[in-house]
Design a protein that fits this description.
The chain has 326 residues and is of the alpha/beta class. It has 10 helices and 12 strands. Bound molecules: guanosine-5'-triphosphate.
C-alpha cells in the first residue's frame, strides 16, 4: 500500500531540510548547503512491510507553485493521503504564503477530499519572545484560514526534537493498523514485565507506536531522555550521565523523540568509526532497556523496572515475537 504525502510551502521554508534530517539522517548543520528544489522530488520509504510512504517534496518557488496549481493540478493533488504545509514562523510575506495555501487546500479538497492536513509552523528556534504565545497566535490564524477543513498545527525546528514529534504523529495517522499495533505492543509489554515498549521505524527512527503503559518513575525518564551513548561493536552498553534537574512533565512529552534523536546520533557516530549499529542495552540501577531489531523495518525499545528481569530474556522475547510483528 502506497501513501502519497505532499510536502508543500514557500521556497526557503525548510521542507528539504526536514526531509534530509528525517529521511537521510543528515545533521541540521548541513541543511544550509541545500539548494532550492526544482519542481518535485520524490522519495519512497518502506514502513512496516507493505506500507510505502511516497513523499513528494514540492519546490516552493512561485513559478513551481503556479504550475502545481494550473497545468500539474490533477497530477499533484490526486491520491494524496496527507498534505504537510510548511510556514516559516517569521515569514517575510505571510499574505502571499496564505494565498498559495488556500489555493492548495482548494485543489486538495477537489482531488483528495479525504486527505489529512498538517501545518508546520517551522523555524520556531528563531522566535525571540514567548514561543508558546506566538505559536498559539499562528495556530488560531491558520485554523481560521483553513475554513471547515480540519487541520493539525505543530511548531517545529530542525534544531530540537519538535520535528520528530510532528513527523511521528503524522506517520502514526498514516499507519492503517496503528490501534492493533498498540494492542500487540501492550500485550508484549505485559509478557516482558516491561514498563513500556516503543516501536520505531528503522531508517527514520520515527515513533510508530507505543504500548499503553503506567508512567515510569521520573528518574528513568530523565536517564533515557538524556542518556548519551558511545559507539561500539554489535551490542553497546551505555551508562547515562547525571542529568540536570529538568521539568519532568516536559520530558514526559518529549522523551520518545529525544530517544529517536539520540539513537540517530549514535548511529551516526557508529558510521564515523566504521561500525554498524545493531542493538543497544542499558543496565542502570533504576531500570533496564533493550533496543533491538523487531522486523525488517522496525526497532523495538523495551524499558523494564523490575531488576530481576535479565536483558537476555528480553532479547529472547523479541526474537519470539518477531514473526507476529512482520
Ligand atoms: P525550496 O526547495 O526552494 O522549496 O525550499 P525549502 O523549503 O526546501 O527550504 P530548505 O530546506 O532548502 O531550507 C532553507 C533554509 O532554511 C536552509 O538554509 C536551512 O538551513 C534553513 N532551515 C531549515 N529549517 C530550519 C529551522 O528549523 N530553523 C532555522 N533557523 N533554519 C532552518
Amino acid at each position: 500500500m502506497k501513501k502519497k504525502v505532499l510536502l508543500m510551502g514557500a521556497s526557503g521554508s525548510g521542507k528539504t531540510s526536514m526531509r534530509s534530517l528525517i529521511f537521510s539522517n543528515n545533521p541540521a548543520s548541513l541543511t544550509s548547503r541545500l539548494g532550492a528544489t526544482i519542481d518535485v522530488e520524490q522519495n519512497h520509504v518502506r514502513f512496516l512491510g507493505d506500507l510505502i510512504l511516497n513523499l513528494w517534496d514540492c519546490g516552493g518557488q512561485d513559478s513551481f507553485m503556479d504550475s502545481y496549481l494550473s497545468t500539474q493540478r490533477s497530477t499533484i493533488f490526486q491520491h494524496v493521503g496527507v498534505m504537510i504545509y510548511v510556514f516559516e514562523v517569521e515569514s517575510r510575506d505571510m499574505p502571499k504564503d496564505l494565498t498559495y495555501y488556500r489555493d492548495c487546500l482548494d485543489a486538495l479538497r477537489k482531488y483528495s477530499s479525504d486527505a489529512s492536513v498538517f501545518l508546520l509552523v517551522h523555524k520556531m528556534d528563531l522566535v525571540k519572545g514567548d514561543k508558546g504565545t506566538q505559536l498559539e497566535r499562528k495556530r488560531r490564524d491558520l485554523q481560521a484560514e483553513s475554513g471547515d477543513v480540519e487541520v493539525t498545527v505543530f511548531g517545529t525546528s530542525i534544531y530540537d526534537e519538535s520535528l520528530y514529534k510532528a513527523w511521528s504523529r503524522i506517520v502514526h495517522t498514516i499507519i492503517p493498523n496503528a490501534a492493533v499495533l498498540t494492542k500487540h505492543l501492550t500485550t508484549f509489554a505485559e509478557a516482558c514485565s516491561a514498563t513500556e515498549v516503543i516501536l520505531f521505524e528503522r531508517t527514520t527512527f520515527l515513533v510508530i507506536a507505543t504500548s499503553s503503559p503506567p508512567a515510569p518513575p521520573a528518574s528513568s525518564q530523565r536517564a533515557l531522555a538524556n542518556g548519551a551513548a558511545t559507539p561500539g561493536s554489535s551490542s553497546t552498553v551505555v551508562t547515562a550521565p547525571t542529568s540536570p534537574v529538568e521539568d519532568v512533565h516536559k520530558l514526559n512529552a518529549t522523551r520518545y523523540e529525544r530517544t529517536s534523536e539520540l539513537i540517530k546520533a549514535l548511529k551516526h557516530s557508529c558510521s564515523r568509526v566504521r561500525e554498524e549499529f545493531y542493538a543497544l542495552e542499558m543496565e542502570l540501577p533504576e531500570f533496564t532497556a533493550v533496543l533491538d531489531e523487531m522486523t525488517k523495518n522496525t526497532y523495538v525499545l523495551i524499558v523494564v523496572h523490575d531488576p530481576t528481569i535479565e536483558t537476555a530474556a528480553l532479547k529472547i522475547n523479541i526474537r519470539t515475537a518477531r514473526q507476529k510483528f512482520e
